Q: What sequence folds into this?
């Protein structure tokens, strides 16, 4: 077991216990032992002085793609887990649409094992909802959970068969896990490669209308109401889908939802010039949709931020727009984008952002993380809320660099991440010149 | 790598290195290209149809999608200007073996070419190429995006017949959704001051097109009543299989441009079509071969317009076009 760690001098920020103020945090045996003012560590503790920085529960991303097995040239579970740690994430849920898909217990075990060896964030596999992700036959959901799966999904594909979704939302209740749905009516999206509308028409690209998402979300919400199962709506991108989720929640259905940083920050205009780094599914929508997503995240209709981290190799994106794959990486820019769009604009407090990135995902998914309460796991992020930095994808820990934020100035930068009291990431010093007069950001010594 | 100092930029119209679309051009630039095409028209009427304007220039016609008319029109334009040309089609080339567009382009570049004329099935492919190689790139049709030289020849044909483009009412009829020709014509016509409408079954009218500044008419009778120029688009037969229209018979009945419909036009009206035509579907033979039709003049103008574009991108100036073509070997 690693040495105890005493993180001192920082601003403790934990919305789960309405904590925001100076204090110290002691982690021992992988768990938080004490949190607050006047905490003294044991003599053998490693003391980390984080003056001027925020200490918060590690971030949780319930939607990432780590490509292993099958597409290790894009990302491995190892590189993905380290990329997550570099973004301040201490827990990630990996989607099962790998090759082969994660649709049996052995595959779930493989992902867990690789995650444990990765030395980054905790990696929890999402199992396939249907065998082979084919949308026909339910997987052995109980066996997947027993092997370590935390949810089921056919992400990448929608579960288009309403009867199958119904059975899944019923059956998963025994195991108390959510069904994560990529909501898309493929008859309406019909091969669309971006948002349908003025920009797609001018560029001559096939468009997917808002209704392709909102029709499916409406249907799914009614099935959630019918069954009482936990439906989690992935990457909401339209104002109409927001309305559906709001309605379902008001009716008492067990529906939760996520939004990605890129849908909060960008619109379809980012596609101009046929920029494949702005090609993702669901596509970037209009300013009206973006404003609606920001409002929904603030008012709680959308519960959490999730990145839909989707690595693709440079060569795969460096081609004709129609032929380039969907998706962008997001783990290492999530905090900066969220702070820029939410805190800088005055829509949400810093604590609100920490909530949507950490406490809220833990709360809706029932995880024993996302808090600094004594007894919780020692998963911690330390970040500088004031640092402005420019995205340079060549510094990413991820195996891929397909981000639409290259060259963009973001606010808020992760300095270090601990998982179970073990330091899993530390910002290299050369990338972060000290602010004038500030003490070393991570130092060692005795109190 | 979007600009290059050796190719282009000296054409006097400020077209830059490439011609990827009409959206980004001004009225002056478009009219300038049409003016430059005027002196080139005459070359094709000569007994010996060749001038040394592009002597020593190497041009690659990279046609990765089937084309007859456009490819041959470009080839005539290039040959009549004395350029050396190479044709590449996707079948029988390394593209068929899975070579990426960027690699194909770089290999061509390594053979020291001057210009690429590209036809490609993906929207944005011409811009993609233009951004990656220093040669001049001319878009000969990219997916559903633009087909600028087609629109330029359409504009020239309209100007020849009606004397001007500004203020004219032009309605584009048919499969606007899938048409790069429609997009280029919309930009070109609007830049030159025409009023533009589109007409067709709503399944073939793209969302948001009104926001580009055009009017949407839902019946072909309305279009004929309103327009001075009717631009009839080809209905690609695969659209029927994809369910955009229920049958060709029905399309012809409700949207076909027929003699009977044209005879009810309140004023003079002319008909253009980019070819190839589906006679009896979007246009009846009476119309295609009748007094309204400007379809063959379009084809003739195609060669002159492409000569003008090649000449301008190679660094020629509009004022010197007349003397350039008179230079002797």
A:
């Amino acid at each position: 077991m690693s040495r105890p760690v005493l993180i001192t001098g920082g601003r403790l920020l934990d919305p789960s216990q309405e904590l925001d103020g100076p204090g110290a945090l002691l982690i021992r045996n992988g768990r938080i032992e004490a949190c607050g003012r006047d905490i003294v560590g044991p003599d053998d503790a490693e003391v980390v002085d984080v003056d001027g920085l925020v200490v918060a529960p590690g971030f949780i991303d319930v939607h990432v793609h780590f490509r292993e097995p099958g597409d290790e040239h894009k990302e491995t579970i190892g590189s993905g887990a380290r990329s997550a740690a570099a973004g301040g994430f201490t827990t990630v849920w990996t989607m099962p649409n790998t090759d082969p898909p994660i649709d049996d217990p052995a595959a779930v075990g493989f992902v867990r094992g690789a995650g444990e060896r990765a030395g980054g964030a905790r990696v929890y596999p999402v199992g396939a909802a249907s065998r082979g992700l084919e949308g026909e036959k339910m997987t052995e959901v109980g066996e997947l959970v027993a092997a370590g799966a935390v949810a089921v999904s056919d992400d990448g594909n929608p579960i288009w068969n309403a009867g199958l979704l119904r059975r899944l939302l019923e059956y998963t209740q025994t195991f108390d896990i959510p069904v994560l749905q990529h909501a898309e009516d493929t008859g309406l999206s019909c091969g669309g490669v971006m948002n349908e509308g003025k920009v797609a028409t001018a560029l001559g690209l096939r468009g997917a209308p808002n209704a392709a998402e909102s029709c499916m979300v409406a249907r799914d919400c009614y099935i959630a109401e019918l069954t009482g199962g936990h439906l989690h709506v992935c990457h909401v991108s339209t104002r109409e889908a927001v309305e559906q989720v709001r309605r379902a929640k008001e009716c008492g259905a067990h529906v939760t939802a996520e939004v990605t940083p890129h849908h909060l920050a960008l619109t379809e205009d980012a596609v101009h010039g046929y920029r494949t780094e702005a090609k993702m599914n669901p596509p970037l929508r209009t300013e009206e949709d973006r404003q609606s997503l920001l409002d929904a995240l603030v008012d709680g209709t959308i519960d959490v931020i999730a990145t839909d981290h989707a690595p693709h190799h440079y060569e795969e994106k460096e081609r004709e727009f129609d032929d380039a794959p969907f998706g962008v990486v997001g783990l290492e820019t999530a905090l900066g984008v969220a702070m820029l769009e939410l805190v800088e604009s005055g829509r949400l407090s810093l604590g609100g952002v920490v909530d949507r990135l950490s406490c809220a995902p833990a709360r809706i998914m029932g995880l024993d993380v996302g808090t600094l309460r004594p007894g919780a796991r020692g998963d911690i992020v330390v970040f500088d809320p004031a640092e402005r930095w420019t995205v340079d994808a060549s510094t990413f820990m991820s195996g891929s660099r397909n981000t639409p934020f290259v060259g963009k100035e973001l606010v808020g930068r992760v300095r270090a991440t601990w998982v179970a009291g073990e330091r899993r990431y530390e910002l290299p010093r050369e990338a972060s010149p000290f602010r004038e007069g500030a003490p070393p950001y991570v130092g060692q010594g005795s109190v | 790598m979007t600009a290059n100092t050796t190719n282009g930029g000296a054409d006097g119209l400020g077209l830059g290195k490439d011609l990827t679309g009409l959206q980004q051009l001004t009225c002056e630039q478009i009219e300038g290209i049409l003016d430059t095409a005027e002196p080139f028209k005459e070359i094709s009427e000569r007994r010996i149809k060749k001038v040394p304007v592009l002597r020593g220039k190497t041009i690659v016609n990279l046609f990765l999608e089937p084309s007859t008319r456009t490819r041959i029109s470009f080839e005539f334009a290039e040959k009549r200007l004395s350029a050396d040309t190479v044709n590449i089609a996707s079948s029988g080339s390394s593209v068929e073996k899975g070579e990426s567009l960027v690699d194909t382009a770089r290999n061509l570049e390594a053979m020291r070419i001057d210009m690429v004329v590209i036809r490609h099935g993906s929207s944005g492919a011409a811009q993609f190429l233009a951004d990656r190689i220093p040669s001049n790139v001319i878009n000969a049709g990219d997916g559903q995006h633009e087909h600028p030289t087609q629109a330029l020849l359409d504009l020239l044909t309209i100007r020849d017949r009606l004397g001007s483009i500004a203020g004219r009412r032009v309605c584009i009829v048919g499969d606007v959704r899938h048409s790069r020709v429609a997009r280029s014509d919309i930009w070109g016509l609007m830049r030159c001051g025409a009023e533009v409408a589109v007409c067709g079954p709503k399944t073939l009218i793209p969302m948001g097109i009104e926001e580009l500044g055009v009017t949407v008419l839902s019946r072909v009778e309305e279009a004929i009543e309103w327009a001075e120029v009717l631009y009839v688009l080809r209905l690609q037969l695969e659209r029927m299989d994809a369910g955009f229209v229920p049958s060709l018979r029905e399309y012809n009945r409700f949207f076909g441009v027929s003699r009977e419909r044209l005879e009810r036009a309140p004023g003079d009206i002319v008909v253009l079509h980019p070819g190839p035509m589906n006679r009896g579907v979007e246009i009846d033979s009476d119309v295609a071969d009748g007094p309204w039709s400007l379809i063959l003049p379009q084809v003739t103008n195609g060669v002159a317009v492409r000569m003008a574009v090649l000449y301008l991108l190679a660094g020629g100036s509009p004022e010197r076009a007349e003397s350039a073509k008179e230079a002797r070997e």
